[in-house]
Design brief:
Elements: H1 2-40, H2 42-55, H3 59-75, H4 79-93, H5 99-115, H6 119-133, H7 139-159, H8 163-178, H9 185-202, H10 206-219, H11 225-240, H12 244-260, H13 264-281, H14 284-306, H15 319-372, H16 401-404, H17 413-428, H18 439-445, H19 450-460, H20 465-483, H21 492-498, H22 504-515, H23 519-528
Helix pairs in contact: 1-2, 1-3, 2-3, 3-4, 3-5, 4-5, 5-6, 5-7, 6-7, 7-8, 7-9, 8-9, 9-10, 9-11, 10-11, 11-12, 11-13, 12-13, 13-14, 14-15, 15-20, 17-19, 21-22
Region (Disordered): 374-412
Protein name: Tetratricopeptide repeat-containing protein
Pfam families: HTH_18 (PF12833), TPR_12 (PF13424)
């Protein structure tokens, strides 16, 4: 008898925890589906929630499943389905007296309707939720629900621009959170601080705004959506202060979170600030890229909101038309910026190509004219000559400004004319290709002094001695390239040596400064234009 009694007591003792386990297993599965499965495999989590609903026996279990499905679809970005499940849960709750679940569902509906732009409907559920939160018997759950619903009311007031009311509701939410000891306390309090940061930012009180953003940052884990909004807010403050370095640092952190987040609100806010950053730093190309990203996020939000336009739903006056106008403005601005950049690039490259071709043809025409009139004295080069203002190779002796000025008492006009004739004869030869060419060397060749020679070159050749010599050398080698095809087969170093330059690099630098082409590109252009002899004719430039 005593043996049977022991068996009975054992079964009774084990039945209680088993019964409790069965009672809590539904809650455990819902919690695991929401916190674990949803992050690993969202479609699987949604199917699990549907299966749980089919197995639910009690109204409270059905409500729990409907709330779970709503939250999962919300996380997936399918707000239309999310609101459907929330409304179904609300209908079931109306049939029973459960203020705790009523507070949960009304807050969920308030947040979802706010996110689709139906603010007055959101407010209706906030008021209903606050009434329900006052009837919750559990002290901590009551205060937590009231705090979250006050947060929602602050969002509503911000949308209407009532910032003083928003601050009042946020401060109320923080007072409610201080009364509870919940694992979600830090996260919910951080959301209130972040919201306060946003409000004071809009009021242009940046020190206070930053202070609240810092409080929120200290309570948040890496990667949360709220932390992304905090970094974006700090970046926005730095933009206002034109502190570009710190602004870039915070906005990069915000963008990293936004790019992996499903929150369109976060994406829109971050891309807008990054666009402003690149506008401020003058990088129009990157600014255009982020303008496009902003428009995509904005369009997605508007498309989502459009699907929830309901008959009789009250939207604050002017809100819809203002948003549509803003959206069109952003679209048009983006299209104009991108189109202008494209046209600008095309015009730039086209004009540069046309200028180069024009200059190339002018150079060749100048060479042909020079060749055909070698028997005549060359005309004085004007200051805008094809070969003026060029970079030249350094030559040993440097003529000073004083050397270039003529002392009339020392040099007669006859001497000046004679020296000019000697220079014209010098130009007809190729002595200027001598690698030892210098001002004193040429003065000795012409039986004059360096002062006289420097003055005549400066006055009649529109150049100093270095530019004058290098000009003659480039004219010489261009003449050879035009009229003797074998020169086009030579290496650049041979061409450089041919006209007296001491190195390949110096020759290439002077050649490009004169012609706008490197020597190799110039030769290719000659071949392409079929310049086989000096009598080739070019049409006039447009």
């Amino acid at each position: 008898m005593s043996k049977n009694l022991l068996k009975f007591l054992f079964l009774l003792a084990t039945a209680v925890p088993i019964f409790a386990q069965k009672k809590n297993s539904f809650d455990l599965i819902c919690e695991r589906t929401s916190s674990v499965t949803a992050h690993k495999d969202l479609p699987k989590a949604i199917k699990t929630a549907d299966s749980l609903y089919m197995l639910a026996q009690k109204p409270s279990e059905k409500i729990q499943c409907l709330i779970l499905s709503s939250e999962l679809y919300h996380h997936a970005g399918e707000l239309k389905k999310a609101i459907c499940y929330s409304e179904n849960a609300h209908s079931v709750i109306n049939q029973i007296n459960d203020p705790e679940q009523m507070a949960v569902v009304t807050r969920l509906l308030a947040r979802q309707y706010r996110q689709v732009g139906l603010y007055e409907r959101s407010k209706k559920y906030i008021i209903k939720g606050l009434e329900a939160s006052g009837r919750i018997t559990d002290f901590e759950k009551s205060n937590e629900a009231a705090g979250l619903l006050n947060q929602e009311m602050a969002f509503y007031e911000m949308e209407l621009g009532n910032y003083s009311n928003a601050i009042r509701f946020i401060e109320s939410s923080l007072k409610y959170f201080e009364r509870i000891n919940s694992r979600n306390e830090n996260r919910t309090a951080a959301a209130s601080y972040q919201l306060l940061g946003d409000v004071y930012f809009k009021l242009n009180d940046y020190p206070v705004s930053e202070n609240y953003y810092r409080k929120a940052e200290s309570l948040l884990k890496v990667g949360s959506c709220t932390l992304g909004l905090v970094y974006n807010g700090l970046g926005g403050i730095r933009l206002k202060q034109k502190n570009w370095k710190d602004a870039e640092l915070y906005l990069k952190k915000a963008e990293k979170i936004a790019d992996t987040s499903r929150s369109l609100k976060l994406k829109k806010a971050v891309y807008s600030n990054i666009n402003d950053y690149y506008e401020g730093t003058g990088d129009n190309f990157k600014a255009s890229l982020y303008a496009v990203k902003y428009v995509r996020a904005y369009d997605s939000i508007e498309a989502r909101n459009q699907s929830f336009t309901m008959k009789g739903a009250e939207i604050p006056k002017g809100k819809s038309s203002k948003k549509n106008g803003h959206m069109n403005l952003v679209k048009n601005a983006t299209i104009i910026v991108l189109f202008t950049l494209l046209i600008g690039l095309l015009v730039f490259f086209r004009s540069k190509q046309k200028k180069q071709r024009s200059k190339f043809r002018n150079i060749i025409r100048a060479q042909l004219n020079m060749i055909s009139s070698r028997s005549n004295p060359p005309l004085k080069q004007p200051h805008d000559s094809e070969f003026s203002n060029i970079s030249v190779e350094e030559i040993d002796e440097k003529d000073s400004e004083t050397d270039r000025r003529r002392n009339d008492s020392l040099m007669t006009s006859e001497t000046e004319s004679k020296l000019l004739e000697l220079l014209e004869d010098f130009e007809k030869g190729d002595l200027y290709n001598n690698k030892g060419m210098s001002l004193s060397f040429l003065a000795g060749e012409l039986n004059t002094n360096t002062k006289y020679l420097s003055y005549v070159i400066n006055q009649h050749k529109s150049a100093d001695f270095k530019s004058y010599i290098n000009r003659l050398r480039i004219k010489y080698i261009v003449d050879k390239l035009i009229n003797d095809e074998k020169y086009r087969q030579y290496k650049i170093s041979i061409l450089a040596d041919e006209c007296g330059f001491s190195s390949h690099s110096k020759f290439a630098a002077v050649f490009k400064a004169v012609t706008d082409y490197s020597p190799s590109a110039y030769i290719k252009y000659l071949d392409a234009e079929n310049q086989s002899d000096k009598n080739i004719h070019f049409p006039e430039n447009d």
